[in-house]
Design goal:
mainly beta; seven-stranded mixed β-sheet; 0% helix
């Protein structure tokens, strides 16, 4: 059964950095796009970044653009979210999720209808930004 496990969350000061990892297991191939989502207390979950199967396409929501960078290392079956210049409003539970697809350029900040929905989700890792 495909699984995703996030790690790297923690406490950071405003202006600081963290790198989240999303490690995949149980997938039969590397044909999956990864999205990063976050949910702050009292708010809806939002898609903040994604990376395509090929790794050539990335997208970011405006609130994290120029501060967060997504990359993937298929040899390690891991996708990273490098977060810099963190702000208190970045405090949230961060999730990664996978779309199984052979479309090399697919990258979405939300789920499409099946079969291109975010089907597999990790348990999340907490990021807290506070002084």
């Amino acid at each position: 059964q495909p699984q995703l496990v996030e790690s790297g969350g923690g406490l950071a000061q405003p202006g600081g950095s963290l790198r989240l990892s999303c490690t995949a297991s149980g997938f039969t191939s590397d044909y999956y796009a990864i999205g990063w989502f976050r949910q702050a207390p009292g708010k809806e979950r939002e898609g903040i970044s994604c990376i395509s199967v090929s790794g050539d396409v990335t997208k970011y929501v405006d609130s994290v653009k120029d501060r967060f960078t997504t990359s993937r290392d298929d040899a390690k079956k891991t996708v990273y979210l490098q977060m810099t210049n963190l702000k208190p409003e970045d405090t949230a539970l961060y999730y990664c999720a996978a779309i199984i697809t052979s479309v090399q350029a697919m990258c979405a900040l939300f789920s499409y209808s099946p079969p291109y929905e975010y089907r597999y989700w990790g348990q999340g890792t907490q990021v807290t930004v506070s002084s």
